[in-house]
Amino acid sequence: MQLVTFIADDRRRVGALLDDGVADLTAAGLPADMVELIESFDPAAVVDATDRAPRRALGEVRISAPLRPPKNVMAVGRNYRAHAQEFSRSGFDASEKETLPSHPVIFTKAATSVVGPEDPIVLSNDPTGTTDYEGELGVVIGRRCRRVTVEQARSVVFGWTIVNDVTARDLQKRHVQWFVGKSPDTFCPMGPAIVTVDELPDIEDRFLETRVNGEVRQRARIAELIFGIDVLISTLSEVITLEPGDVIATGTPEGVGIGFDPPRYLQPGDVVEVSIEGIGTLRNPVTP
Ligand code: MG
Questions:
Q1: I need a surface site. Which of 41, 141, 219, 269 has the fewest CB within 10 A?
Q2: Distance (Å, rounded) from C-alpha 215 to C-alpha 173?
């Protein structure tokens, strides 16, 4: 199933995305908060609620970010080979010791940076004027867990979403640690939906594509990840308790703005779209 958080009648609700609109699961008695829904997830109850729920046309609702995770968004740097090489060439990675990492490079983005589809990426939140896009697969964790093995990892995944790991490049470089450059408000567009893992078990075979004003900038198969989804979950959960609603942004492929010479930073009026087959398209305008 494809689950969304949406605003209708000035109230936040959780819905199931259907061909002809959204089934209002909150009106059918399920939680209005996606993290609560994931914590108490009962597939049969959601199917039953979808059948009973009032339908709303897509034009009547505003889709927001699917959730605000319980901790900062966890994210992975330099996790596609060609991107690791372009990032290294750009000179923007002040923490780099080797072009291809031997262990996952993990950082976080402030939870307050999360916005939804169609929400603007606000350039003035980056005082250095070096705002860049990074289209990524987001993994949504389904249950509280620790010390998950690679073999068990898929069992703790709730579903998949799309994340744009928007980055202030000069801040990323200047502060060495990436947290500041990755965390300005509006710099984590997420959505539009969470697709449950049972509906999209072959996520590694799907293509991710990022377009700026319709021009394709990034295109890669998820399988090209250096450290795959299950390894990331195992690595993180070895030391951190993962919780329902936690999000792992798995890394971005080649084709970011700093991969060009000169760099092609986002400009006011740009529109960034990140698509993953089977999940949808996350579209955000860029404003001053
Ligand atoms: Mg990234």
A1: 269
A2: 27
